[in-house]
Structures are given as structure tokens and as C-alpha cells.
UniProtKB/TrEMBL annotation:
Pfam families: NIPSNAP. This is NIPSNAP domain-containing protein. It comes from the Bacteria. It comes from Martelella mediterranea DSM 17316. InterPro entries: Dimeric_a/b-barrel, NIPSNAP. Residues 3-105 form the NIPSNAP domain. SUPFAM superfamilies: Dimeric alpha+beta barrel (SSF54909).
Length: 108
């Protein structure tokens, strides 16, 4: 198992738009492509409160590449993302890391 940690840093004031896009659009595409989420969080105390952090679970990097690339290439997703950013960009920058659980991790 591999866990992907993704952090989306929003343009000022645009976190509500990102949350709505995930709630009403993105998660449907995740379901369509079999992308399994572990959870989503916003930052209440920390260096940036305009961020959305989430975790995705993958069986392998090959599975991740296949599913993520299909999702990113979906014409309906591309159109929906563009529509959500028609008034202004939402995400200023994205960070992602791939994590492997230790042998003593509760999540393996």
C-alpha cells in the first residue's frame, strides 16, 4: 500500500471554492476512476489556513499512474475544473508526497 499526501494551497479567499469543487464535482470523478480517499482536512492552526490536505490510498504506483492519469485526462473533468475557475484561479500551488507505512503503523 502507498498513501499519497496532497496539499492544495489556495489563492486568498478561494478555499471555499475548492471545498465546493471537491464536494460537488471532484469526488464523483474519484469514484468514477476508483480513486480511494482516506480523508480530507483544512488547517485550523498552522502556517497556512488557505490549504486543503488530503490522503489517497493506492495499491501500487502503477495503479496510481493509471487511475490518476485517466482522471486528469477526462474531458468532463477538464471542463468542470475550468468552469470552477472561470472567475478566478483557485489553487496557487500543489504539493504531493508518496508515503509507505512502517511495519508498526496502524494503517498498512
Amino acid at each position: 500500500m502507498i498513501v499519497e499526501l496532497r496539499i492544495y494551497y489556495c489563492a486568498p479567499g478561494r478555499l471555499p471554492a475548492l471545498l465546493e469543487r471537491f464536494r460537488s464535482t471532484t469526488l464523483g470523478f474519484f469514484d468514477k476512476y476508483g480513486i480511494e480517499q482516506i480523508g480530507f482536512w483544512t488547517t485550523t492552526i498552522g502556517p497556512d489556513n488557505h490549504a486543503l490536505t488530503y490522503l489517497l490510498k493506492w495499491d501500487s504506483m502503477a495503479e496510481r499512474e493509471k487511475r490518476w492519469n485517466a482522471f486528469q485526462a477526462d474531458a468532463d473533468w477538464i471542463a468542470a475544473r475550468a468552469e470552477s475557475e472561470r472567475e478566478a484561479p483557485i489553487v496557487a500551488r500543489v504539493e504531493n508526497s508518496f508515503l509507505a507505512p512502517t511495519d508498526f503503523s496502524a494503517l498498512r
